[in-house]
Structure prediction request, 75 residues.
Amino acid sequence: MPINYLLVRSLEERDPAFADELRERLVELVETDWERTGRFHEYFDARNGEGLGADAQTGWTALVANLIAEGWPAD
Prediction:
């Protein structure tokens, strides 16, 4: 998640549409895994999105909250 977060942030200036798409996919990935397992996983399988590794990663994986807040449409 930390690398993906930094990637989204760096793409915001170069390719905002792609940054938004990546942001949405990351949020959906974590949300889907949370709904399925009730856990925040350390990392995810690139092929099927399955949460892997430690399953209480409320540190780095919590960066998804930043992705949501930073990508939220302004009023």
